[in-house]
Amino acid sequence: MIYKKALGLFIISLLPLIGAAQNQQNVSINVSATVAGTVEMITINTVDFENIEREGSVVRVDPIFGERAGKMIARGTPNAEFRVDYIRERELVNLDGDGIIFFNYEVAGNRIDDQETSELLDQDIRDLQFNDDGEYYFWIGGSVDLSDINPGSYQGEFTIEIEYI
Amino acid sequence: MKNFSQHIIELLTLTFLIGISAESAVSQDIRFGQYGEYTIELEDIGLEDLIFEGPINSNSGIYDVELIDSKVLSIIGVKYLDVDVEITADGKLYLDGDPSYDSDPQRSIPFTLQAAYANDGENNVTSSKPIAIANNPSLNSGTTRFPILSRRQQPPGPPPSPPTGDFDQSLVNETAYLYFYGQIDVGNVVAGQYRGTINVTVEYR
User: Fold this and answer.
1) Dihedral sign from CA coordinates of B40, B46, B48, B51
2) Is the pLDDT of residue B113 over 90?
3) For residues A129 and B46, what is the distance between their CA atoms, to the nearest angstrom?
């Protein structure tokens, strides 16, 4: 009788061990959302070629050291990283008659408001970062070949794209 | 006197038997799957995240992933067995998936998880049934139990054949589906990628 009871207890104690072998499966699912802040672009100065001295047929405004460079400020989310892209060559049209010229843009950028320490953004796409105040500074220069063009006043636009990453 | 003591013994015996009977009455739940070697598979269909599509701007409020656009998991197992499903998820999505931002409202987005299942053998959200999820600020959690294949109002069938050497589980397998969707409430948060995790566990009941 004592033997039977002992055997019964032994079988009961085995059951949880068998139960531990049951099949269980786990899967983890990632949930994601990308938040893009808004970006505001403010133009401070346009590129100024008026009465500029030139050597040969090419006129150039240096974006880092040129006083005539255009200036823009981007305002966004503090310390957020962003990507900038701009079209390097744009067409300028003669407002006074026939003729077009092609302007080659050069852009420099800086997290602080200091043109001379700015970095030339010479790749097609660059990853940059707003400063603690959510600002980033751009200086716009470039060059144009004025040989073989009609006299007149030429105008075009500069397009820069900024997107959060 | 002898009769009286005999009655007492009978009464005690009867009480004891009733006590045993009452105890055995709560043990009607037979877990066939617990002692069998049945396998169960939980598979990720699509391999993509549950993604709240943009563009999402700061302070822009509610964004939904609807049931029809759910993240889907499949459960492949013995069709006449029940499965327990346990679901837990972060109550927020965190900037760069970093949970240390839990108390930073500028770097976390409240996430309300919703879930459903379909056990009629088809991956079809229109026939799915909702799973109750408790949505707390720090945790979404819920559990449910259902047969791999719906019994359609019929009583449960006989217990499954023991998985002996002749047992081929693939002949009695069926697929059930789990659907995950929900919403986020985007407050005044910094730009960036926000991530969270849903953990799903299934096992035979």
Assistant:
1) negative
2) yes
3) 34
Contact state of B200 with A30 under an 8 Å Cβ cutoff: no
Gap between the Cα atoms of B158 and A70, Å rounded: 83
Q: Residue A108 is inside which H or E element, if any?
A: strand A100-110
Q: How would DSSP label each residue in B50-111?
A: EEEEEEEETT-EEEEE-GGG-EEEEEEEETTSEEEEEEEEESEEEETT-GGGTT-TTSEEEE
The 10s digit of each residue's pLDDT in B138-174 is 899 999 999 999 877 666 666 666 666 667 777 888 9
Residue B140 · residue B30 · CB < 8 Å: no
Residues of A in contact with B57 (CB under 8 A): 35-38
Instruction: Return the SS3 of B17.
Output: helix
Of A104, A108, A117, A103, whose CA–CA distance to A149 is shortest? A103
Domains observed in chain A: 40-164 (2.60.40)
Phi, psi dihedral angles at B171 (to 5 degrees)? -75, -20
CA B13 to chain centre: 44
Cβ <8 Å between A29 and B73: yes
**Which one of B38, B186, B201 has the shortest CB-CB distance to A26?**
B201
Q: Strand A24-36 relative to strand B50-57: parallel, antiparallel, unpaired?
A: parallel
B77-B44-B35 Cα angle (round to 5): 25
Residue segments in chain A with a per-residue pLDDT below the cut of 70: 1-22, 124-125
Determine the distance from the C-alpha atom of residue B201 to the mean position of all C-alpha atoms in its chain, rounded to a whole number.
7
- Report ipTM (2 d.p.): 0.78
Q: What is the pLDDT of residues B48-64, one digit of tens each?
A: 889 998 778 888 899 99
Q: Which CATH number fits domain B32-204: 1.10.287, 1.20.58, 3.10.20, 2.60.40?
A: 2.60.40
Contact (CB<8Å) A19/B71:
no
CB contact under 8 A, B50 and A29: yes
Identify the CA nearest to A70 among candidates A156, A12, A153.
A156
The single-letter code of the amino acid at B25 is A
In the stretch 58-117 of chain B, residues with CB closer than 8 A to chain A read 58, 63, 71, 73, 75, 89-90, 93, 109, 111
Query: Using only C-alpha atoms, what is the Rg of chain A?
Result: 33
